[in-house]
Amino acid sequence: MGREDDKMTTSRKWRFPILIGSGLIAAGILVYFSNARQSSHNTQGAIGNRDVYRDGQVNASDVAKPGEAPVATAAVLQSADFKSIANTAAFQSLLSDESFVQLRKKELFAQLLSDSSFREMANQNAFRKLLESESFRKAMADSNKQDALKKSADQESMQQLKRGSAAQESMQQLKRGSAAQESMQQLKRGSAAQDSQFRALQQDANFQELNKRKAFQDLVSNEAFRKMAQNESFRMLMSSESFSQLMNDNSFRKLLSQSEFRSELLNRSASELSAEMRKK
């Protein structure tokens, strides 16, 4: 009996470790197969992603060769819109116009061409006539001077703040009055000449008509336009028959709204543009 009791005790003693070990082995097998399935899924996903990436790669045919226009630009120059205006007398005259040749070098002119308000106004006869008005040119010149005064006042204020030994002293300097403050007062009061010019401008029928339109209001608040309004080449271009005809052409206005065309218009010669148009 003693030996049998010992055997039963020994059996019970090892039963729980064996059960625990079996459980751990089963758990390990389950984890292994679970990871294997997940790894297979991830591998398939990675292949799928790689396929998508490969589909999005740039083809050699989409890249411009040296000396040729980029594909997007070439497409614009070979479009029906460009072909409809490329050989017209108005377009050819524009490219050789001395005023246009001078303006295409100016960043402000490029900014204007990209402005939708300018493109909308440029085909208005009242707008072109207003640009010829002396009172309008003077009003734009005075507006530029006011901008310069305001910038100068702001800069002077900042310089005073930087120079002051203490914030309180700087504030006292500003309160006591300075060149910057005086400039701001001039902007608020306005001069008699400015008032007179503005009153004359208000009597202009073209200004009255245009001032009802938001595009015109946005344009006259554009610093690039106000500065270009003082430019003789710009005024001459705006009064030219060729530019007027083109700005009344839907195809040209559509092209002008595209950055690729504007870049080519300002940087390529007439012969280069024609050569691009003839390519297939």
How would you describe this structure to a colleague?
The protein has 280 residues and is an all-alpha fold. The protein has a domain at 134-195. It is 80% helix and 0% strand. The chain is built from 20 helices and no strands. α3 (80-86) crosses α18 (250-256), α4 (89-96) crosses α17 and α9 (134-163) packs antiparallel against α11 (179-189). The longest helix is centred in the first third of the chain and has 54 residues, at 2-55. Mean pLDDT is 73; it is low at 40-67.
Helix content: over 70%
Number of strands: 0
The largest sheet is: none
Basic shape: elongated
Strand content: under 5%
Kindly report the average pLDDT value. 73
Q: N- to C-terminal separation?
A: 107 Å
Give the radius of gyration: 38 Å
Structural classification: mainly alpha
Number of helices: 20
Give a quick summary of the entry.
This protein has 20 helices and no strands.
Can you tag this structure with a few keywords?
elongated; 280 residues
Would you spell out the secondary-structure blueprint of this structure?
Elements: H1 2-55, H2 71-77, H3 80-86, H4 89-96, H5 98-103, H6 107-113, H7 116-121, H8 125-131, H9 134-163, H10 167-176, H11 179-189, H12 192-202, H13 205-210, H14 214-220, H15 223-228, H16 232-239, H17 241-247, H18 250-256, H19 259-267, H20 270-278
